Amino acid sequence: MYVCICRQITCGQIRAAADDGVSSVRDLKQQLGVASQCGKCAGCARGILENALSDKLSQKDEPVA
Ligand code: FES
User: Fold this and answer.
1) For the domain bounded by 2-61, which CATH number is listed?
2) What is the pTM of this model?
3) 62 CA to middle of ligand 1, Å?
4) Residues 27-40 pLDDT 10s
5) CA 37 to ligand 1: nearest atom
């Protein structure tokens, strides 16, 4: 699903960026261009990033089988 229409950035690209170490909307803006034009996607992008980072942390806490 597109999150940033202006730059054609998808939810999957934001989640992949989080996996690669992106931890803020500022970083997303620098790396992908999210929220760099009209800015209307910033809140949605932040939510997706926070969810991705939360998922990443919870996966780290899971014991290795
Ligand atoms: S929708 Fe992302 S900058 Fe416009």
Assistant:
1) 1.10.10.1100
2) 0.88
3) 35
4) 999 999 999 999 99
5) 3
